[in-house]
Amino acid sequence: MSEFETILLERKGGSDGKGGVGWITLNRPKALNALNAQVLADITAALDELERDDSIGAVVLTGSEKAFAAGADIKEMATKSYMDMFLADTFAGWDRLANFRKPTIAAVAGYALGGGCEVAMMCDILIAADTAKFGQPEIKLGVIPGMGGSQRLTRAVGKAKAMDLILTGRNMGVEEAERAGVVSRIVPADQLLDTALEAAQTIASMSLPAAMLAKAAVNRSFETSLAEGLLFERRAFHSLFATDDQKEGMAAFTEKRPPNFTNS
Ligand code: CO8
After folding, report:
1. For the whole model, what pTM was predicted?
2. What's the burial of 10, exposed, middle or buried (CB within 10 Å: 0-12/13-18/19+)?
3. Is the model's pLDDT at 1 over the cut of 70?
4. 205, 221, 240 — which closes off a domain?
5. Is residue 261 part of a domain?
6. Which positions make up the signal peptide (predicted)?
7. Do 32 and 110 share a domain, yes or no?
8. Residue among 36, 74, 84 whose CB has most ligand 1 atoms within 8 A, to mutate
């Protein structure tokens, strides 16, 4: 297992070559997991490793009890010029997480602000502790969301609430976030990690090609017309009939036994 400066990477299960969960913990406690360039480099390397690893079927990204992540690192950005930001294409590297092909779960406790909220929204499922707080406070710093907040938050919650959050910079509690569609499930804080692990293990126990195509199909709905999206879904659905796992899943149903998927 690789060592990183700003994150912890673990593998849970998967010793028989499938069904494992990649577990990434943001680990900059003194800065409330603020997202600097090193965090991005570490997460990118970890995701590359987990994408290559056939034993991994899902990934959980989490932070600490106090903060999932309190945003992009303000101290790192504070003195940058326009040209610094433009030439470095600051934050573009986070597309690696949004485009990761296996299912991802954000397990969020405490603050998920600014870039922290945006990173959580890049994940496929967002499970939140009852302590979680979400917000896009960039306006208070004289800037705007820069890692997808104005787009992903708006798609999740609609224009009125997105404007409210982004223009006032206020925090949103977990109940509001669930009602608005940012959060998949709320759990008591002491059950957050177990719940996220259980959900990830459930996903990882499915056929990996089916899970990857399910993710791709849902994500396609944000990028295309209904007709094109339906066509994409149908083609993906048809393609799964080329897998052993489809034969196994349907045979197992008929034979009233659990399926044994082989990701083939
Ligand atoms: N960046 C750097 N350091 C941070 C950050 C951050 N985002 N958040 C917290 N820290 C540091 C604090 O500076 C402090 O360090 P130190 O002890 O050295 O002073 C330490 O973490 C602990 O923080 P606090 O003492 O402030 O802890 P509190 O419990 O009092 O407060 C809060 C917690 C409310 C979360 C508070 O820390 C806070 O408001 N943080 C900033 C939240 C924020 O504004 N996030 C948005 C950042 S910008 C962004 O993410 C969008 C990116 C797009 C920008 C586009 C630019 C082009």
Report:
1. 0.96
2. exposed
3. no
4. 205
5. no
6. none
7. yes
8. 74
CA–CA dist 17, 128 (Å, integer): 30
> What range defines the domain where residue 100 resides?
7-205
Do 58 and 152 reside in the same domain of the chain? yes
- Provide the terminal-to-terminal Cα distance of the chain, rounded to the nearest Å: 26
- Do residues 197 and 244 share a domain? no
Out of 138, 148, 196, 200, the active site residue is 138
Give the H/E segment covering residue 22.
strand 20-26
Whether 138 sits among the annotated catalytic residues: the reply is yes
Work out the average pLDDT over 216-233.
97
Q: How far apart are CA 199 and CA 211, in angstroms?
A: 13
Residue 219 has a pLDDT of 97
Q: Could you read off the pLDDT of 46-82 as tens digits, one per residue? A: 999 999 999 999 999 999 999 999 999 999 999 999 9
Residue nearest to atom 44 of ligand 1 (CA): 137
Using a 6 Å cutoff on CB, does residue 85 contact ligand 1? yes
| Catalytic-role residue among 31, 34, 67, 72 | 72
Query: Residue 20: which H helix or E strand, with range?
Result: strand 20-26
* 32 CB within 6 A, ligand 1: yes
Our answer to whether residue 210 is catalytic in this structure is no
118 is annotated as an active-site residue? yes
CATH of the domain at 88: 3.90.226.10
Closest-lying ligand 1 atom to the alpha carbon of residue 115: 50
- Based on the residue annotation, tell me whether 175 is a catalytic residue of this protein: no
Centre of ligand 1 from the C-alpha of residue 197, in Å: 28
Number of structural domains (the chain) is 2
Whether residue 2 has pLDDT greater than 90: no
Segment 155-177 mean pLDDT: 98
CA distance 89 to 84: 8
